[in-house]
Amino acid sequence: MLKTIDVVAAIIVHNGKLLLARRAASCDQAGLWEFPGGKVEPGETQARALCRELEEELGIHATPGEWIASHSREVSGRMINLHAWSVARFSGTPQCTTSHSELAWCTPARAQDYDLAPADIPLLEAFLRRSLPG
Q1: Cα dist from 107 to 36, 61, 102, whole Å
Q2: Fewest CB within 10 A of the end CB: N or C in the chain?
Q3: What is the pLDDT of residue 133?
Q4: pLDDT of residue 22
Q5: Which cofactors, if any, are listed as required (predicted)?
Q6: What ranges do the domains of the chain cover?
Q7: What sign does the CA torsion over 65, 17, 101, 89 have?
Q8: Which helix (H) or strand (E) element contains residue 107?
């Protein structure tokens, strides 16, 4: 049986652009782009985990918005339950730490041009569907 891990991802929107982070060489799936975030610790809510991870990984204080989508995928012998949340409000300037080698702001449509981690693709697609005018 695979170990199951809950992970949160932030779809950070600022001035009409999304923030993508490139996974560092020392990380699993090195070089792929992703929405920043990380593991939900035992007893922690998804919102609290997202705030903690964004502070640790990017040095920002964020206010999670609405839930976007969840997706489960086997990655490196583990079942990852990835939960995406929108983040439109944050303070500070996102900075790379040991988890990421590069950050990029791009329009939502251009995000598809990046080499995204496979688990992040359905999250981007769900965000794009929600963002389209009704």
Answers
A1: 16, 22, 17
A2: C
A3: 54
A4: 94
A5: Mg(2+)
A6: 4-131
A7: negative
A8: none
Q: Show the DSSP H helices in 42-120 as ranges.
A: 46-58
Average pLDDT by stretches of 10, the chain with 134 residues: 92 95 80 94 96 95 95 86 95 90 94 93 93 58
- In terms of C-beta density within 10 A (0-12 exposed, 13-18 middle, 19 or more buried), how is residue 66 classed? exposed
CA-to-CA separations, 6 to 43, 44, 56, 82, 133, in angstroms, rounded = 12, 11, 17, 6, 31
Q: Which residue in this structure is represented by tokens 């079942």?
A: 79
* Gap between the terminal Cα atoms of the chain: 42
Under CATH, to which class is 4-131 assigned? alpha beta
pTM passes above 0.85: yes
